[in-house]
Input
Amino acid sequence: MRNKALYNKLIYRLLPLVTIVLMIALWAIAAWLDGTELVFPKLSTTLKDLYGAVTQAEFWKSVGNTALRAVLSFCIAFVAAIALSLLAVKHKPFAAMFYPVVVLLRALPTISIIFICYLSVKSWYRAVLISFLVIFPTLYSSFYTAFKQTEGPLAEVGVVYGVKRRYVLTKYVIPSVWEYVFSDIVSILSLTVKLVVAAEAITATRNSLGGLMHRGQVNLDMGLLFAYTVVAILLAYAMELVVRLTAKIVKGASLKCRLH
Amino acid sequence: MSIALKNVTKKYDDRIVLNDFFISFEEGKINCILGPSGIGKTTILRVLAGLTDYSGFVERPEKVSYIFQDSRLLPNLTVWENVEYVILDIPKEQRPPLIKNLLELTELYDRRNDFPQSLSGGMARRVAIARAYAYSADLLLMDEPFSALDTGLKLRQIAVYKTLASKYPRTSIFVSHDIDEALLFADKVFVMADGKIAETINLTPTGDYRDLFSPETLNAKKRLFEALTKKY
Output
């Protein structure tokens, strides 16, 4: 029984690796079929270019800037979404007034945001603002629904038993909201990296991963473009992993302290 | 402090659930409101708990505990913490002995670190009972406390209530649509029909669940049945 559980655990750990190997194999086949490396560079070329890139200071500065922009944009959107969704849940007139803004931001084409920001915002902050405007409505809606569901039947327990507001908040509202929005937060964080890189590439931002990708594309250096793409994927995954691991550690530690 | 609803009217949109309704409960006893579904039994509990608005006059103690029909345990808190949630105001050192005692009485002490998702429906109901008794209220409200329980579990649950009621006495009001539940558990039964109290029956209080086949109970059962099936 125990062996079967271990076997299953191992299988489920290995299955994603199999998919990754398959995707790399597909890439290799596509590169072999292409032959020119103008669309699909060889794996060896990409790895060589990646090695060349990571040995340069500009690369790390660019990755750092992109990561910083993504984190900054996400944090601003996160705080704004919490504050405004809470306000909307507590004050219906505000929710009604703010609704068109959310709908507008949600429907606004990303490319329009990029073009508008291109002329009016300083280059370093451009990608921050662009990704903020794209992720904010999703985060806002997620938090709004999460806060709204805490007003349901479980909230009546606190009302009947006269539980103080601060305890309702710490013991019920915050954990419930966190549980509800966590998976959204993780996927939005990855999306933020994607958006920041896209905005940097389109607006040709200096000292950025997107800017480097833009340069690779202009110079038809597909090996380098693929290398930076791999870095962008790893960056998004690393951020996701950091959030997941932190949440797991905090949850585990808090549970340990709470047991009787 | 008397517990009563006087000339209470409650509407949900255009639908009148309670119209100039009057009921006065027996203090220190287990009161039951018996009646068909949808007649307004839960609304009476919600009015008494201060969970809904109404017009009229309500006399009730300041502190009320409520066992909801669906247990309503907080999913992110353990069994222990769910009980503790309603007594966070009392000094920290006073909480553990009270919670331990209640969890032992409800036979849940071994499951104290488990989360509600891992409990059966009956266990979750017992946590809700422990939580209600942890709170030092003068009135306990129970909404269909034995619904969806098989007979064995129902009798066990009644025994748990009776044990807790003897250790932590308080006036109790429960609502039910089941005559047997009312007879097994209540000291006083109010039959609700056509928006008012159609019949009131007093039963001899008992330390455990009541014998359903005693002459007194059979007679009460007949009266309750007649009151529930009579055309008003």
